[in-house]
Amino acid sequence: MEVSLIFNPFNPLKILHYSDRIQRMMDGEIIPPVMVSFDFANPCNQRCVWCAWTKHRRVEGGFLSREVLEDVIDTMGSEVESWEVCGGGEPLLNRNSHEYLEKLRDTGKRILLVTNGTFLTEDDARNCSTIRVSLDAGFQSTHADLHGSEDWNKIIDNIEKASKITKVGVGFLIHPANYREIYDFTLLSRGLGARFAHIRPCYTDYEEVRDVVGFDWFRWSEAHEAEIMSEVNRAKSLETDKFDVWTTFYKVMPKKWPFSKCYALTLDPCISPTGGVWLCCERRGIEKSLIGTIGVDGSFREIWYSKKHEELIRDLPDQLCPFKCKYSGYNRAIHEAYVNKSLDLDWI
Fold first, then answer.
1. Which superfamily does CATH assign the domain made up of 33-252+267-326 to?
2. pLDDT digits (tens, 9 = 90+) for 289-300
3. What are phi and psi of 280, to 5 degrees?
């Protein structure tokens, strides 16, 4: 395996950096989250054909309040290592989002912002350590078809400006309508000054997505594997010492659980706009995944260390999780290191 494939920001083995927390978790303790993910907004200005959260965004709706944000910062901010700002919808649609990013920056912790780029400002770039922009196309017409947006030129301009200030990555979901543009997308991203391009599958195995997108990722990708990998390899040829091309196919492999529970979900809860504290972002809106609601069931800290959280962790059946799992690699790393003890951590 090439060194570049080992040392990249999407390698799930990085979870072992938090070995002290993991050991406490394996001993039955509820540990402070490493990262807290915020959904600043459930509405979205785009209509992406693959959106998996349409139903949840419609049911919950709304924008994150200042009170919820400040509660999380005040009660747990000193114990959290970093903040993520992402969906539900488009986070920067929240009219207070730019102020919220400043408040998170003032905690001294790093911020990752995931956005479609329409409302991205240079001030946001100054507040964030890393920004990932979901572009998913090499050309304007394809972006319009897949994102339902006419803001291509504005987004391109915003990416270029932000890239001069902070680390910006550009995302690409592989889809039948865009896979022949992987190289063009990567060339464009590099030209805009981005630090990396992130290429990954358009996952279809959500009820909300399956019929709308109109294809099955596993069957389609098997039939087009040679073409896809040819484009990916061409994209990889564009790498420089200032620009990387990362792929993450492992997150959408058919799920084979060699373990009886999810170990990683206590490391990164999701806070939705109404103040809901969800076990993880993949389970927002799923019954029995809500730990509690800030302002209704107590503060974030009280909810996090509650009896209900203990019960959900203990009783959580993995069958409720989608096949696409953000934590699948993390779970495998923890299982091998701490349950199977395959890594012999005592020996250097």
1. Aldolase class I (3.20.20.70)
2. 899 999 999 999
3. -160, 165
